[in-house]
């Protein structure tokens, strides 16, 4: 997800608006990175720790 | 680069590359002392392959039917390359916090490199006026 800062160039004073960024939803998508060594497995038995 | 449509919504979700717009709005009712809205302006942008990696001047203008132009936001947008674009489209989202001082029609206009592309509008009405319109 790519973000661009938005530059405001005029303000009439007749309306309050806040917009500080624009987001590009599909460009550079955040692909979930599954890292096996970080997976947490509950109820691990002692045998599973033994080297293969 | 073109803007195929513009939608103003209360919320959206992006799940596995699929956009889901939960609550699109085109009317906002103001009450006594309550005239604020947090919305997302979502625009579907489409590209042609030769445009990739080019810079575009993206402009969002807000105007009122009686008061004229109120705000202009501009930013330089670099079109992503072919490997990051999905089907030559993307969705551009402006998170907007708005405070409407008057009733009337507020139009949100998107232009690219000074050329009009698309727009969406919100009718801001007062509570009593809404009852009359229905």
Summarize the structure.
The complex is a heterodimer of chains A (52) and B (134). Chain A is an all-beta fold and 52 residues long. Helix content of chain A is 0%, strand content 31%.
Q: How would you summarize the topology of this molecule?
A:
The complex is a heterodimer of chains A (52) and B (134).
Chain A: E1 2-5, E2 7-11, E3 16-18, E4 21-24
Antiparallel strand pairs in A: 1-4
Chain B: E1 2-9, E2 12-15, E3 18-21, E4 27-30, E5 36-46, E6 55-64, E7 68-78, E8 89-99, E9 104-112, E10 115-126, H1 127-133
Parallel strand pairs in B: 4-10
Antiparallel strand pairs in B: 1-5, 2-3, 5-8, 6-7, 6-9, 9-10
Describe the protein in words.
The complex is a heterodimer of chains A (52) and B (134). Chain A is elongated, with a radius of gyration of 24 Å. The model of chain A is unreliable at 32-52 (pLDDT under 50). Chain A has no helices and 4 strands. Chain A has strands spanning 2-5, 7-11, 16-18, 21-24. With 134 residues, chain B is mostly beta strands. Chain B has 1 helix and 10 strands; from the N terminus they run ββββββββββα. In chain B, the strands form 3 sheets. Chain B has a 5-stranded mixed sheet with strand order 4-10-9-6-7. A 3-stranded antiparallel sheet of chain B has the order 1-5-8, with no helix packed on it. A two-stranded antiparallel sheet of chain B has the order 2-3. The N and C termini of chain B lie far apart (39 Å). The model of chain B has no long low-confidence stretch (mean pLDDT 88). The interface between A and B is medium-sized, with 26 and 37 residues. Strand 2 of chain A pairs antiparallel with strand 7 (68-78) of chain B, so a sheet runs across the interface.
